[in-house]
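Re-running the complex after MR caught last week's input typo. The corrected sequence lines follow. Everything else is unchanged.
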Amino acid sequence: MSTDTTPGQILDPVADRRLRTGPLSNGQDAAEARGYVDPPPRVGFFTDTSVCIGCKACEVACKEWNRVPEDGLVFTGMSYDNTQGLGADTWRHVAFIEQRKPLARQVTGAVARTGLESHDEGDASGAVGFRWLMASDVCKHCTEAACLDVCPTGAIFRTEFGTVVVQEDICNGCGYCVPACPYGVIDKREDDGRVWKCTLCYDRLKVGQEPACAKACPTDSIQFGVLDELRERADQRLAVLHSAGVSDARLYGRDPDDGVGGDGAFFLLLDEPEVYGLPPDPVVGTRELPALWARVGLAAAALSATVAAVFVARRS
Amino acid sequence: MSNQSNVGREGQEGVRPGRGATTGVHVGASSSNAETAVRVRDPWAPRGQGNGRGPRAIASSAGAATASYYGLPVLNEPVWSARDIAGYLFLGGLAGASAAVGAGAHVTGRRALARGAKLGAAGAVGLSLAALVHDLGRPTRFLNMLRVLKVTSPMNIGSWLLAGFAPAAMASAASEVTGLAPTGGAIATAAAAVLGPGVSAYTAALIANTAVPSWHGGHRTMPYVFVASGASAAAGWGLLTAPPTECEPVRRLALVAGPAEIALTKLMEREMGMAAEPYHQGRAGIYMKLAVGLTALGSLTSSLARRDRRAGIAAGAALLLGSAFERFGVFRAGVQSARDPVYTIAPQRARRAEVTARG
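Corrected-run output:
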């Protein structure tokens, strides 16, 4: 079979328009549904937070590669996290959490050697142990992406890799994607007027390079790859952790049947998602939109009928 | 020896630090150290608007402690300015419903009411467009709204609606004022009347189709709330601009729309569950109370407007203000709900628990 197309190439203007305007064609084969011919496999991130050491190399690599402006030199005092959350100028964010909770099979010899107080003895509330949780958060590149769906200009689009990217030469800064995102990822850069977020290093993907954050991660907490393979790898890792007694371990955003059709960037967490600042069970608003449009139609009809009625009604 | 220090390599000899490291501050509001999270200074404050993004404890009305990441919001706060976008919610509602009133008055030969309503619709939609363009980060790119047609984006559909409605409403008003092209004016009036109710209603889809708890929570009833509020405002505008002899239809409209707005808002809040709380708190709470009071006052006063022009003006002003406070209150409640992670987290947890329980 001979075709002139190369993988990822957009075939024709009609397909191109379908790609930009899209029917409600999000789905697991997101790229294909958007008009790409023979797209490369969908890629993403699997962030295994159980091996994250909180070094923030991903934050730095992302900023350097993507030339993301400074996002505020602040000292929060709340933890080792002075970044706080994702935004227009923060595309990777390392969360840092301290808990009175033991790691699996945690043994310290500190008490015996030094005589210092240890969290092993427990505190007033009876909690025993002590652990640090670190997790590098990023845009989830949702299968059903709310930001993409609500974007009125078509500036946000689905790439051939199945990722979600903002075209900065199209975005007019309407800001609709900001409250639409159930994860609080995309945000408006005030001095620039447009919205920005992780592109999953679209430029690097195009030349066969992995994204800057994954490249920089020293422990392979951030793993880049073909999404299907990452999901398999994550399942295996979860099984290993569970058999090692880390019963808190769970995958987040892996399930293609969740409220956003699964995340392109998913996680292995050691506690409830909200502890990391992640929503426990987000649902893309677009799923309820058909019913919402129906109600808008009914409401508009009711308004027309009411106004007609007040003019037609006979004087009492 | 007096100058000999008792500080050695292992620290101060025989002295233990008075306090241990505080841990577990974020595992829940019930944690003994929860206050630590509250006292942290607000590093987001310099970003303008005093948007209160700093770490705060979670005040869950659900009683149970809800875990969060240092009380920080899960969502990014809407970047829309209240003046522009809440202002548009009000003006768009007024414009759309006024166009319908203008057509009704046109057909039934109420000249003054028709003139006022048509001018009101044109003026309100003109201001709406100005506010919408002003709120864009890149105002010169406002026409990008029309480079696609996209049903999944209420803002895109709204832009197309406005692209049809605004010229129609303005042509209708221009013909009314100048007396030129009466047939064209009638056609424009009809077109504006057809599109107007859509303009009044779609803004509910615009804000309900977000992740903002106190907006999304209204996705069942908000379209009806918004058309009632738009109708109430249009009735108010009619009472303000037309003499008592022509005001009978808008008096009736005020008597229907005002109470409907109040009742439907209550219904909407009931359906929202926990996300209704912001409607009773802070500035949103004040706005919503004012909305109810002014709308009720205007609706009642309108019945006196049959003979008394001054009563009509007072009723009209109250209805307009009531509708405006309704929209600013809804807008504000959404912003407040986005700031507090509990409104994002608790309902999602409850939903998930329900699904798990059902198997």
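None of the earlier attempt is carried over here. Chain A has two domains: 13-283, 285-316. The longest strand of chain A covers residues 92-99.
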